[in-house]
Amino acid sequence: MNVLAICAHPDDAEIWCGGTLAKYALRGDKVTIAISTNGEVGSPTLPKEEIAEIRRKEAQEAADIIGAELIWMGYPDEFLFDREETRLTFIDVMRQAQADVVLTHYPQDLYNPDHTITGQIANDVAIMTTVPNIVTNHPPIAKIPVVYFIETLAGLNFHPEEYVDITDTIEIKQKMLAKHESQVGDWLKDQYGSNAAEMVEIISRFRGIQSGVRYAEGFIRAKAYPRNITGSLLP
């Protein structure tokens, strides 16, 4: 199966679905991580171009841990908008990844507009990925991908409907997150007084308590015709 995580910023995939992505990879699925913005505002001291390049390198190193492909979409951080060109890029990314499953932000994630817009566009364009008259760099895929929404920051206003047991991949998730040193050790602490590694541990443990395992990640599947399914495509 081909799995695509489309997230707003470098480190979002690792924080909210890194354990699940690791499980997909370990069982032999092809995993792609696409980042919609370049993370260029994510430093209290470094200029945009420098921090963007650092974050791209960190994202690649994190993806390499599970053998995932990285797609860097490169939109300006904090200024992602839903327009025709952006939608075509999202469609093309899904086609490039040959996505069967898409993991993306919950559209009601009000922490950051890039999260909201990324999730909304990814869900909106999924149905367009098979349409021949919508032309992008890659050809249409055969089947509309199934979309799953990932956690919001701190789990606010998010009530999972499905869970993935990540007890056996929590350490991989933490190693992936640790590659984002510019954020874990600098930006998030500077802006929010937040310890990202601690947050990952607490939320994963809380979702584990909810679902009867040690550590878990929570998801909500987008239920929409004609891409609804029986069962689950989560690992």
TrEMBL record:
Pfam families, per database record: PIG-L (PF02585)
SUPFAM superfamilies the record matches: LmbE-like
Name used for this protein in its record: LmbE family N-acetylglucosaminyl deacetylase
Species name: Paenibacillus eucommiae
Lineage: Bacteria, Bacillati, Bacillota, Bacilli, Bacillales
